[in-house]
Amino acid sequence: MKFGVFFKRACAPRLGMALLSGGNSYDIAYGMGMGALSAMAMSAFIGGVTGGVGAAANNGNFWTGKGMRFEFGVSSGPKDQIKMSIEMAEAYNNSEEMKWVDYGIYQNMQREVGFENGMFGVENPTSHSGKHYGYLSDGYYQKIKDGARVAGYYDPDGAKMHISKGVAIGDLTTFRATVRHELIHAYHYYKFGPAAANFTEALAYQDTYYTYLQAGYYGDAFKVTLNPNFSWKKYPFMYYFNP
After folding, report:
1. Which of 38, 96, 108, 114 sits 20 to 30 Å CA-CA off 240?
2. What is the pLDDT of residues 204-217, one digit of tens each?
3. What are the boundaries of each domain within the chain?
4. Does 36 score more than 50 pLDDT?
5. C-beta of residue 206 within 8 angstroms of C-beta of residue 138
């Protein structure tokens, strides 16, 4: 696909919407720094898309948010490695390495989005896997239930934000997109409660799209538009938050 065609399909539509939204997002696990792609590379990229990028709200109480976790950047993972990923998570969680990674997450969030503890109820964002995830060798979470690979997630129950080690120490644009995505979810739940589940995914993916687009990651921006949670729909101004 020629870039001009890609731009018309993925970048041009309602570009002025960025003035309203500025950005939004949820559990993110990208890590695809593709940059500007040539026509040949773009064609190969599109051919390889199989719906691996996604966000999933796990089973939980919709009305209270308890038991719900919103995952971003979900893709298939090696199910035969779940036992090993659990062991890796047990070794990593609360290790000295995790403490240093968490320190870096906090410092980078301060710089990228002006984060301070207590912002929208979030305290001490962490790379700790949590009890429902293991750790893959590439530094991304693995969901114990189905083996899916996950970049990060936001848990409304306690306003907990988890950023995988792979995202934390990886590409800065991926980190920025992930953190913005999750922080927007935190904003929605802090301000609107469980009712946010009706619109938070769409707004988060709009923000992720513009974050990649502004960084020149055209392939990643286009891939976001293929996600079923993505929408060009405009929402009331109060729903938008630009970290």
Report:
1. 108
2. 999 999 999 999 99
3. 25-33+53-232
4. no
5. no
Judge whether residue 56 has pLDDT over 90: no
Alpha-carbon gap, residue 217 to 118, rounded angstroms: 31
pLDDT at 88: 96
Q: Are strands 160-163 and 152-155 parallel, antiparallel or unpaired?
A: antiparallel
Distance between CA atoms of 62 and 200, rounded to whole angstroms?
13
Q: How far apart are CA 170 and CA 179, in angstroms?
A: 13
Q: For helices 96-113 and 172-192, what crossing angle results, to 10°?
A: 80
SS3 6: helix
Residues 124, 102: contact at Cβ < 8 Å?
yes
Residue 132 contacts residue 143 (beta carbons within 8 Å): yes
| Category of 14 on φ-ψ map: left (φ > 0), alpha (ψ -120 to 50) or beta | left
Say what the pLDDT of residue 138 is.
94
